[in-house]
Design a protein that fits this description.
By secondary structure, the protein is an alpha+beta fold. Helices cover about 35% and strands about 40% of the residues. The protein is built from 3 helices and 4 strands. A hairpin with a 2-residue loop joins strand 2 and strand 3. It starts with a strand and ends in a 9-residue tail after the last helix. The relative contact order is 0.25.
């Protein structure tokens, strides 16, 4: 089996729960065809660099997949039919990176900076 990284952009009109549900459906599909999803990251609603099908924003998700090529082809076929999907990109990689993606790592660093530090504030 080969390793893949898959990025999915869905329409801004759907809710975050529907985007998460789509990720779970993809997981069930891949596992049903003999693959395994090692990591699913939901990046949230983000701005697009240019309009896609009249959308300025999209729900982004990243999936780390270990699956046979037939399973990935079937997943891409079903995504091309789904009208909620704006774009997807699947890349074959040598090994899966199971750490936080740079997008989520940056978000965590920004949250750390925003938190008030109580030990620095003398009373």
């Amino acid at each position: 089996m080969a390793y893949y990284e898959h990025v999915l952009i869905t329409r801004q009109d759907i809710s975050p729960q529907q985007a998460e549900t789509m990720n779970e459906e993809l997981k069930a599909l891949i596992e049903g065809l003999g693959g395994h999803i090692a990591k699913i990251e939901y990046w949230g609603l983000r701005n697009l660099s240019y309009r896609i099908k009249k959308n300025r924003k999209g729900h982004y998700s990243l999936l780390a997949i270990e699956a046979p090529a037939e399973a990935v082809k079937e997943m891409e076929r079903q995504l091309s039919i789904n009208e909620d999907v704006l774009r997807y990109l699947t890349l074959r990689v040598e090994q899966l990176d199971l750490e936080l993606s740079p997008v989520l790592a940056r978000r965590d660093r920004e949250r750390e900076r925003e938190r008030p530090r109580f030990d620095d504030n003398p009373l």
